[in-house]
Amino acid sequence: MNSIAPSDRMANVHSDIRGPVFEKAMKMVSSGIDVLRLNTGNPDTFGFTMPDSVRTALINNVDKAVGYCDLKGMPEARNAICDYHVVKGILDLTPDDIFIGNGVSELVNMAMTSFLNPGDEILIPSPSYSLWTNMAYIVGATPVLYRCDEASGWYPDVADILKKITPKTRAILIINPNNPTGSLYSKEILEQIIQIAREHKLLICSDEIYDRLVMDGLEHVSTAALAPDIPVFTFNGLSKSHIVCGFRCGWLAISGPRRQIGDLIASITKLAAMRLCGNALTQLVIPAAMGDAQSTKTLISPGGRIYEQREATINALDQIDGITYVKNSAAFYLFPKIDVKKFNITNDKKFVLDLLESKHILLVAGSGFDWPEPDHFRIVMLPEPKILSNAMQQIGDFLSTYRQE
Ligand SMILES: Cc1ncc(COP(=O)(O)O)c(C=O)c1O
Predict the structure, then answer these.
(1) Is 368's C-beta closer than 6 angstroms to any atom of ligand 1?
(2) Distances from the Cα of 287 to the Cαs of 46, 78, 81, 84, in angstroms?
(3) What is the rounded CA–CA span in Å between residue 84 and residue 287?
(4) Does domain 8-49+297-399 have CATH number 3.90.1150.10?
(5) Domain with CATH 3.90.1150.10 in the chain
(6) In whole angstroms, what is the distance from residue 147 CA to residue 156 CA?
(7) Which of 58, 67, 181, 323 would you call most buried, defined as having the most Cβ atoms within 10 angstroms of its Cβ?
(8) Which CATH number fits domain 63-292: 3.90.420.10, 3.20.20.80, 3.40.1490.10, 3.40.640.10?
(9) How far apart are the CA of 105 and the centre of ligand 1, in A?
(10) How far apart (Å, rounded) are the C-alpha atoms in residues 255 and 61?
(11) Backbone angles phi, psi at 364, to 5 degrees
């Protein structure tokens, strides 16, 4: 018997992207079955490669990354990040407002540890990437889910946000572009959320890791650029835009009236000091990556892989009776709706498990993104168009006879 129990804070922590269905898939792989892994947003798995600009910067500068670097990050890297965000409209940002860390994941940990007390509430979109709800549980806070509305292009439901504010609410999270819906928010919807934060004195956390993966000629608007008068934590990184998830390279940019949050910034600085520094090797590539917008643009333009993979996926999905979707305009995720009455689906995790066993395709159930009904799943559109198209046909074939007991 295991006599050393995990802490109570771990009880609600969940990762369905790498959860029990994933473990089952890995067992199938080790027994020699070829499983198509549409579960993680890890482009390297499907033959995407980092840009040459990034590889060259790493190789040429490797000797500069041997020691601990500045606890906030290397000056050249913070300058490049700062310039990027100033161009996007966060006008009063300085390199001193940037904290570089081991992926957005580490910075979310540091940020939430610094501003949430046990019992505090943070408003988090549903559906959303589970990092944020999990971190809330880990610090003893309560994630309060606000609904994003599929009928409105998966935009946040502002009325629902307002309903869910209590005296314990400390912050509101915006994930734009969103994972798992791939939705890109308009300036108008951002302004409405900012106004709520303004009136209720909430900190805004804006996770913008997919901001460079926006398609169809649309443009990403940075939340902080619209809210110079309130504190905004903007999270971003190179994992997706420059195909270097494994580098663990992310940052936090703090904007708005710094004097109001001086103690909070000092706390984050203490946490940054505690872990000495972010991975210095990966910081070497930041100036080159920020100067290389073209390699990402190529992927998301017609003819580019991310664009064509989306087109292939939705064209094939259109042929399936009982599945509808909101076309994503950013990132490489789709969050289709499944007609639960038609297929008698009451358990979305069972649906993805049954599909895995039957067709060897690994998806993540909507409930893994804190979505309350069993009627959605997420597709990661990273394999080549033909593979995706074939996978969608296989899903259609599976559904043609599928009914849950
Ligand atoms: C919305 C969102 N935020 C953060 C992350 C984590 O990013 P990083 O690799 O920088 O830790 C992911 C990863 O998929 C994500 O989808």
Answers:
(1) no
(2) 26, 8, 8, 10
(3) 10
(4) yes
(5) 8-49+297-399
(6) 6
(7) 181
(8) 3.40.640.10
(9) 6
(10) 30
(11) -115, 130
Determine the Cα–Cα distance for residues 403 and 391; give it in Å rounded to an integer.
Answer: 19
- For residue 402 and ligand 1, the question of a CB distance below 6 A is answered with no
Q: Give the mutation target among 42, 100, 104, 283 for probing the ligand 1 site: most ligand atoms within 8 A of CB.
A: 104
Backbone dihedral region for residue 65 (phi beyond 0: left; psi -120 to 50: alpha; all else: beta):
alpha
- Closest residue to atom 16 of ligand 1, CA basis: 179
Alpha-carbon gap, residue 100 to 304, rounded angstroms: 30
What pLDDT is stored for residue 273 in this prediction?
97
The residue with tokens 């990762």 is 15
- Is the CB of 175 inside a 6 Å radius of any atom of ligand 1? yes
- pLDDT for position 17: 79
The token duo for 138 is: 């880990």
Q: Please give the Cα distance from 125 to 174 (Å, whole number).
A: 7
Q: Is 237 in the pocket of ligand 1 (CB under 6 A)?
A: yes
Give the pLDDT confidence score for residue 16 in this predicted structure. Answer: 81
- Record the tokens describing residue 282, joined without a space: 């990966």
Residue 405: its pLDDT value, please? 81
Q: Which residues of 321-358 are buried (b: 16+ CB within 10 A; e: fewer)?
A: ebbebbebbbbbbbbbbbebeebebeebbebbbebbee
Phi then psi dihedrals of residue 372, to 5 deg: -80, -20
Give the DSSP per-residue string, 28-64. Answer: HHHTT---EE-S---GGGGT----HHHHHHHHHHGGG
Classify residue 242 by its DSSP letter: T
Residue 3 pLDDT: 86
Q: Which candidate, 7, 316, 257, 27, places its Cα nearest to that of 138?
A: 7
pLDDT computed for residue 19 by the predictor: 84
